[in-house]
Amino acid sequence: MTRSFPGRHFPRRRSLVVRLTAVSLLIALGSIAATAWLAVQTTTRAIQQEQGQALSGDATIYTELIGFAAVNHTWDQVGPRLRELSAGTGRRIVVTTLDRRVLGDSGGAPVTLPVKATASVDPLHVDPVLLPEAGTSGIDPRATGPFRLPPKERADLDGLAGKAAACLTSMGFPSQPRGTASGRPQLTGLDPYAIRYFAAKCGIYELAAPTPTEEAALLSLNEAVNRCLDNEGAKQVELDLDFRALGVTGQGPAQSCVDSARREQLTPYVAPPVLLFTLGPGGSPLPTFTLSRENLTRILAVTGGVLVLAAALTLLVATRLSRPLRALTEAAKQDRPAPVKSRDEVGYLAAAFNDLTARRERIEEQRKAMVSDIAHELRNPLNVIRGRLEAAEDGHLPFDGALSASLLEETVLLQHIVDDLQDLAAADAGRLRLHPEPVDAAELAGHVAAAHADRAAAGGVALSVDADGDTGLTADPVRLRQVVGNLVTNAIRHTPSGGRVAIRVSSTVDCVTLAVADTGTGIAAEDLPHVFDRFWRAEKSRSRQTGGSGLGLAIVRHLAQAHGGTVTAESKTGTVDSGSTFTVRLPKPDLRGEGAGADS
Fold it and tell me: 3-state class of 586 per DSSP?
């Protein structure tokens, strides 16, 4: 049978080759873009570092100009300082406002300044790489503003510092006073032990106390800091002369507000930010790093080459991947095994497809055989009914009670076959309904034996029931009786006159066992795996000498499985005329859930 497929071709955009190629190109493009971006960023960072190192070589220029701005509120007197720095470094130095208006030039004819300045000079925003003394605040420590001491306060502190240093030296802790940008002296070589034990004796506390000028500046700074903290919703603080918030650690809102407040306080006392340009002798620009047209072309060429190579490799790989898929598609169209032997995902898919094809063919063969078996089973009673009716119509048979009884027997057989087929169809479709309730298996077996007693007696077969233990369980009594009845009917049918059929009911901790044993013809070892197949009979001639529809054992297996149990068949010696035993094992707990009407 050949299956039809809607449409022979599909849109090219849906092609696996096209999609794999597109995805690979996108990945390649993304990878190249990411690599190029990383390279540019790395190169830029390296260039910046190189420029920073070059500027560090001229750190004197930057440091001197930052120091000038920290102690002067304008750039009016910067000219002499620029000329001194130019003479010492061999560079031409130009200082401009942020809008590039020249404020100072170390000399020479006017020159065209580079697009990018060498550095920005702002004592309130210092590059910590170029001036580590600025610390994390970025404020030049030489910018003291209102904290600069007047001569009298400076002289008083110098006197206190001299006395404290002499006292500490006499105690065995040599120390010397050192001046600072604000004019407040500091003692060098202070030891924590000395500060702890000799601070009061040597007047260190008096030396550390703020002067009136410092108190006024510190009060103004505290007010600005706390205004900032109020805006941030943070707790107010108090600063010491080292601009540290007392009782506060870390770089939280307090430190940020301290830095911003200090810049606000110092702005009137320092020079405004300017741009610094350092040029070579004669005003020529210093060497810079640029990306030439040749380098740009080279980068674009390499990028294009990588894209072309990626596209070619992707197309090759996609073609090799899609070839077995096309072969699999053609095999599916022609309903034949796929000739794919690769050991990859596609090969596994082809093997699964071939297995599926083989299973479908087996199922189709079984379906045809089943249709043939059903037709054969229905044909026999129908032929009997038709033949006898035609004979009666032609006058060869009298239309009496015997004929009616014979026709009724064949009709009942037909009804039995149809009912069995209906049960199997419901089981196959998952619509077999059970109505579980508490059942005594031994009592049910006795009822089945009583119902089949006449048939067993007519065949000269002894029928007995043997029960042992607690045989209570939860099951559908109608379906369970059908199971035992089918097994007993099958046993009586295959047991000759003078034989025995025994129903044995036993119990274990977790299951109840119903076994039907006979002393009949037995089952050959090669036939045991097929006894539960539909329409299977040991009589290969299909002469129906023993009657039956060939569906009883198949129904038994489905009903046992519907109850969560199993059914097995065995022959004592595996040879003919040895008798057979069919054993059904059903769990004691209700494995199918509570309530009647559960679907199987």
Answer: strand
- Look up residue 552 and give its two tokens: 């009883």
Sequence-distant (≥ 6) Cβ neighbours of residue 399 within 8 angstroms? 392
> Distance between CA atoms of 253 and 323, rounded to whole angstroms?
66
pLDDT digits (tens, 9 = 90+) for 174-197: 888 888 888 899 888 777 766 777
Rounded to whole angstroms, the Cα distance separating 151 from 213 reads 11
d(CA 35, CA 42): 10
Q: What angle do CA 497, 516, 446 make, to 5 degrees?
A: 90
Burial class (CB in 10 A: 0-12, 13-18, 19+), 250: exposed
CA distance 200 to 354: 99
Its CATH class, for the domain covering 345-413, is mainly alpha
Check the CA dihedral 352-355-361-364 and report its sign.
negative
Residue with tokens 């605040």: 137
Confidence of residue 598 (pLDDT cuts 50, 70, 90): very low
One fold for 345-413 and 433-593:
no
| Distant-in-sequence, close-in-space partners of 313: CB < 8 Å, separation ≥ 6 | 24
Kindly report, residue by residue over 396-419, the tens digit of the pLDDT: 778 777 777 777 867 876 776 777
Q: Which CATH code is given to the segment(s) 433-593?
A: 3.30.565.10
Strand 500-507 to strand 511-518: parallel, antiparallel, or no bridges (unpaired)? antiparallel
Pick 337 or 258 by higher pLDDT.
258
Largest CA distance in the chain: 156
